[in-house]
Amino acid sequence: MKTVRISLSSIDKVKHFVNDIARFDCDFDLVSGRYVIDAKSIMGIFSLDLARPISLTIHTDEGLDEIMEVLAPYLID
Fold first, then answer.
1. Which CATH number covers residue 57?
2. Tens digit of pLDDT for each residue in 3-60?
3. How many domains does the chain have?
């Protein structure tokens, strides 16, 4: 399991993000404040405050290198 901070500041970014992670066979959760939603759910993502960075929890230890490459455009420090 790994947690990273991401930014989804536009509708296009959200759409591309969901398409990018949908190809992986593991679970992803987005955490914003007290809300935890399935990161593969576009409707769920739009229920969050996208103006601020969001924590993404990746529920796998296999293939993390490939997942991190795909997530690179969304990652923040």
1. 3.30.1340.10
2. 999 999 999 999 999 999 999 999 999 999 899 999 999 999 999 999 999 999 999 9
3. 1
Q: Dump the DSSP string for 16-65.
A: HHHHHHHTSSSEEEEEETTEEEETT-HHHHHTS-TTS-EEEEEE-SSSHH
Boundaries of domain holding 37: 2-74
Model confidence, pTM? 0.92
3-state secondary structure of 13: helix
Decide: helix, strand or coil at residue 15: helix
Is the Cβ–Cβ distance between 26 and 59 less than 8 Å?
yes
* CA torsion angle 49 55 57 58 (round to 10): 100
Task: Count CA atoms within 13 Å of residue 41 on its CB side.
Answer: 12
